[in-house]
Amino acid sequence: MPSLYLFAPENDMALAFGGKHYTPPPVACTIAHDLSLLPLWYAEEENATVWSKQHITPDMRRALDSLGVTSYATTKLPNDTTDCKPWGWSAYMTERLLRMGVTRTMLPDDASIDKIRLLSGRATTRNIILSLQEAGTGYPLPPLPTALTTGNEVEKYIASQQASILKSPWSSSGRGVWYVRNGYDETTARYAEGIIRKQGYIMGEVLQDKVSDLAMEFYSDGTSVRFAGYSLFETDERGAYTGNILDTNDALEQLICSHIAPEHLHNTRKALEKILTTLIAPHYKGYMGIDMILYRNEQNDILLHPCIELNLRMSMGMVARIIADRYLSTNSKGTYRVEYNPDTTQLKELHNTLQQQHPLNIANRKITKGYLALTPIEDNTHYLAYIVVNE
Prior knowledge:
The protein is built from 12 helices and 17 strands. It is an alpha+beta fold. The chain folds into 4 domains: 1-120, no CATH class; 123-137 and 208-318, 2-Layer Sandwich (D-amino Acid Aminotransferase, Chain A, domain 1), CATH 3.30.470; 146-206, 2-Layer Sandwich (Dna Ligase, domain 1); 331-391, no CATH class. Strands 13-12-9-10-11-14-17-16-15 form a 9-stranded antiparallel sheet, sandwiched between helices. Helix 6 (123-135) packs across helix 10. It is globular and about 60 Å long.
């Protein structure tokens, strides 16, 4: 039966707020609007509904039809809607869906939302790493992150490390992350104590010498959790997401295992499936991702950090995974990117240039090569999601 999909990246900030009457900042609203048609490409059911004020462009419609996608966009709730699949869950999201006309029985109750918010906090990262230690994965794990609840605790933690990171419990896209390299100065103290006052604690972590970003994606059916695929992605200097590699799972695994032993990766994956089945499955149904990094230790060895954070929601990495698995031909690979430009004209110029340089080719409902805009560019668009595929 058809489900209602809603792209709402502001949900992470709503979790930080905690209440149902949240007002997203203008930037978050812009991202949510400009990329609102993104669920067309990852919706699981036929004839799924995507809530959006945007219009599907003729080029997008032709590509959707050629790929066999029957989902559509609307601003009215269909009478036959049986399920809601927003980007993520929060008190804000349930209130928003209720205002859209969704019946209460389709939504998680207040106790479930409270549990999802608790599990979405960065303290869960510590619990996952502790569980990995107990599981005995057979390779060295990074130091545990530490929950700090006072300015004095933060100062002592920073003094105990050569370099560290402070992270707010709830944040998104590189926000809420503070790098500490010069000790506990006045600016750091003001930042840390502000987060503690608003959110109750702040996480302290050892700053690692990062080589690359990756993630493992998982799916919970409400009873158990299964591995759903790898994600290799890029971030900017602030830690904000910029794009993903589009390739098969096997190819991405080979890239990761060019740095670490395959058994380390496989042991981690199996252990996380068990840990998340116990920790998450009873309380959440849907996709989730665990961000990881490859990093160098003092001996210059490359190691896997198996849990930088848990994203208890849909993620751009999972979108990329679904696109690669569902739409790319066997011998093709490419990139998935989210582009920002304050000038809409320049964004349109990029779109036109990529169209000319990489003509789209679809055969047997698979993309063999070319450029495809996944979201439209309108008169005031600043964000564009797109893919470029090569044979």
